[in-house]
Specification:
single chain; alpha+beta; 5-stranded antiparallel sheet
């Protein structure tokens, strides 16, 4: 009997993944294609200072922003031998975002925690050459053991409770509640990630960060509701949603638990907690749901 349920589950996940729009992919863990990192870019100075010219690092150091309040055209000078069109040319009153190869090269270095590496981006403002001085900073990493422990606890609580309560009505409640917690944690992760890209519409970034969760959210909500109602399809949908979040969606976010810089609007530690709850809780939902499926339907109250 368990083998039949597993086959049905695999068919369900496979078909829904195939039917999902191609634009929603798990690679977009954070909105705009951003991801966690071990270092962060900072602009230190502009030499010589030019009235009206501002350059700063944005999106947790992923890109630079130049705001041209001068009366001259601002040109970001390319690396020797690279095409000039690859970097922005900003008219007076304009602004531009870009990922500079000099900053990217500095970020690719391996440095000890707390270290800094200097970089320089040359600009041409009219007939003046200006140097944007910056640094790449490597903050201390997070307490990874703490967040892994939270993920293990998020797995163990629903798994143990689900197995023990597989033949009781409260077991269904545990499974439904754990599924809702996983969905809520991932929703908050998406909402906090979508606000980081500065030059993109928030609704578009929500879709970018959601990916396969566009399937997982309704799958889990319907599964939790049917599970509480005592419907036999409820646990199956919960298992499918939990597996989707824990196996397909959230693993690409696992670097958040070890990297120091996290592109999230509401604090890196909150995002780490949400990722741990989604990853561990999704696996816990799978274990609890499979236990209930093996036990068979429990009459509704």
């Amino acid at each position: 009997m368990a083998g039949v349920w597993i086959v049905r589950l695999l068919l369900l996940v496979t078909m829904t993944a195939l039917l999902l729009p191609g634009g929603a992919t798990p690679a977009d863990a954070h909105a705009g294609g951003l991801s966690s990192a071990t270092s962060e870019a900072r602009v230190v100075a502009i030499e010589p200072p030019v009235p009206g010219l501002q350059v700063r690092a944005v999106e947790f150091g992923a890109r630079l922003l130049v705001e041209n309040g001068t009366g001259e055209v601002v040109v970001v000078e390319p690396l020797p031998g690279s095409p000039p069109a690859a970097l922005p040319v900003v008219a007076p009153g304009g602004a531009a975002y870009w990922s500079d190869p000099r900053v990217t090269a500095a970020a690719a270095q391996r440095r000890p925690d707390g270290d800094r590496s200097a970089w320089t981006v040359p600009l041409r403002v009219g007939g003046i050459t200006v140097a944007v001085r910056g640094e790449q900073f490597w903050p201390p990493p997070p307490a990874t053991a703490l967040w892994i422990g939270l993920a293990v606890a998020a797995l163990a609580v629903p798994a143990v409770a689900g197995v023990l309560g597989a033949g009781r009505r409260w077991g269904r409640v545990v499974l439904a509640a754990a599924t809702v917690v996983v969905i809520g944690a991932h929703l908050l992760h998406v909402f906090g990630s979508a606000g980081v890209p500065e030059d993109q519409p928030y609704p578009l970034m929500l879709l970018s960060a959601a990916g396969y969760a566009l399937l997982g959210w309704p799958l889990g909500v319907v599964g939790a509701w049917l599970t509480v109602r005592g419907h036999s399809a409820g646990p199956l949908l919960c298992v499918a949603a939990g597996g989707l979040f824990a196996i397909v969606i959230t693993p690409v976010d696992a670097f958040t638990l070890v990297d120091a810089v996290v592109p999230f609007d509401w604090g890196a530690d909150l995002d780490r907690a949400l990722v741990a709850l989604t990853l561990g809780g999704g696996l816990g939902v799978v274990v609890a749901g499979m236990a209930l499926l093996r036990r068979g339907p429990v009459p509704a109250a």
